Amino acid sequence: MIVLVFLFLSVAPYKYTPTGPRRPSKHARRVGDSCLPSSIFWAGRDMAAANSVPLITAYKMGKFDLSHRVVLAPLTRQRSYGNVPQPHAILYYSQRASKGGLLIAEATGVSDTAQGYPCTPGIWTKEQVEAWKPIVNAVHEKGGIFFCQIWHVGRVSNHDFQPNGQAPISSTAKPITPQVRANGIDVAIFSTPRRLRTEEIPLVVNDFRVAARNAIEAGFDGVEIHGAHGYLIDQFLKDKVNDRTDRYGGSLENRCRFALEIVEAVVDEIGADRVGIRLSPYASYMQSGDSNPEALGLYMANALNKYGISYLHMVEPRMINVGEKVEVPHSLLPMRKAFKGTFIVVGGYDREEGNTAIASGYADLVAYGRLFLANPDLPRRFELNAPLNKYNRETFYIQDPVVGYTDYPFLDSDL
Ligand SMILES: Cc1cc2nc3c(=O)[nH]c(=O)nc-3n(C[C@H](O)[C@H](O)[C@H](O)COP(=O)(O)O)c2cc1C
User: Cβ–Cβ contacts within 10 Å for residue 29, how many?
Assistant: First the structure.
């Protein structure tokens, strides 16, 4: 932590640009109305402090005008029965939408081989595209900007999730050893994957291309390519997984080829300004470590510049496992400096650290996972420095359409 703060401070004011006027707060208009709850007056007193909240400043991400820097991180919620997004997601996402706020949808499968968890959504069928439409509309009605995270799990799967019970596909034929699930009780068993043949790889690249087109058809403003957390793209990127001897394995350049071919195909399909990518070079989630994460992250940051994509979304080195924060001596600063587009950071951020990251120029935007999950009005709470709801891990992945999903309270009961 000390190292991270030092790095934030040592780069100030790298790439930090003052922004235009803030969106007027609802509170500013309503303070003084004697029928309002007392929390409103408390909020009003805090307005002076809110004026200097770096997270609540405007930012232009390409053609998208953001009114604040608090991004909804992609969050798998496992409530999409039969891999089809459900009507209850309309309320869930619209609760978290705000005018000029960027939301990234949960990881969404690109094909029928992409799945590895129960009830995760897809975007490869007409039915799925149609089911996304009212969800995207609801976010747009609230003025939100909505990207879809497109995903292939690769070997993080087993026969039960695969068409005809076939083996999951991967860069490798090495299986993942059984893992305790996020609930801390169940053990996930993974099947031995089938190593993709070189000539099959363009077909998977094409699945990402089609998924991106489908996302735009569903109304999304863009897509985030899921290149993080040990899933298929990461299985190619990381040298502790990728044991290929063809042009997709071995050297750094070869291991990054699959990811960059996907970026190129998706950019070609929907335009660079609608494309972001998420990477986690330092993470070893799902046994996906790399011997030189900084070199990997830097190579990708530089290579991505060629395509002019909208953003690079990077997971902090301290998140070696999703949801676990550990002290590390590394920082994303080299990648931040190398990448020319919008730089989003994620992983263990609170309000104060997010403000420091923005004010120092360490990042353009900060994504919040668990805090946003539990606080549908997180940007407003940050603006007011209001207390936060605590998240309940036990309901992260249950299939209930309400509990732990749309029942986290807003700051004011009248919202
Ligand atoms: C319930 C849950 C679901 C998640 N699902 C995804 C996902 O679908 N895609 C992804 O890239 N990361 C996923 N993550 C990781 C988060 O996006 C985020 O990187 C992580 O929670 C760290 O950020 P935080 O400390 O703000 O929560 C998930 C995390 C949680 C807790």
Answer: 9
Q: Is the Cβ atom of 346 under 6 angstroms away from ligand 1?
A: yes
What are the residue boundaries of the structural domains of the chain, listed by start? 67-384
Three-state DSSP class for residue 72: strand
Spatial separation of the C-alpha atoms in residues 123 and 154, rounded to whole Å: 16
Local structure of 4: helix, strand or coil: helix
Catalytic residue among 59, 231, 405, 408: 231
Q: What is the pTM of this model?
A: 0.88
Q: Rounded to whole angstroms, what are the CA distances from 287 to 75, 107, 282, 326?
A: 20, 19, 12, 17
Residue located via tokens 């799902």: 286
What is the mean pLDDT, run by run of 10 residues, along the chain of 415 residues? 34 29 29 29 40 93 98 98 98 98 98 97 98 98 98 97 97 93 80 98 98 98 98 98 98 98 98 98 95 98 98 93 76 97 97 98 98 98 98 96 98 63
Helices (H) and strands (E) in the chain, counts: 14, 15
Instruction: Name 88's Cβ contacts closer than 8 Å, sequence gap at least 6.
Output: 79, 401, 402, 405, 406
Burial of 185 from C-beta contacts in 10 A (0-12 / 13-18 / 19+)? exposed
- 3-class DSSP state for residue 42? helix
Secondary structure (3-state) at 62: coil
Helix, strand, coil shares, percent, the chain, to 5? 35, 15, 50
CA distances from 219 to 100, 137, 149, 162 (A): 16, 7, 14, 28
Cα 74 to ligand 1 centroid, rounded to whole Å? 6
Are 184 and 159 spatial neighbours (Cβ–Cβ below 8 Å)? no
- The CATH architecture annotation of domain 67-384 reads Alpha-Beta Barrel (3.20)
Ligand 1, atom 10: closest residue by C-alpha: 74
ω into 202 cis (within 30 of 0) = no
> Is the CB of 279 inside a 6 Å radius of any atom of ligand 1?
no
* Residue nearest atom 23 in ligand 1 by C-alpha distance: 347
CB atoms within 10 A of CB 336: 23
Residues 6+ apart with CB under 8 A from 132: 85, 121, 123, 148, 215, 218, 219, 220
Query: Residue 177 is encoded by which pair of tokens?
Result: 């050893």
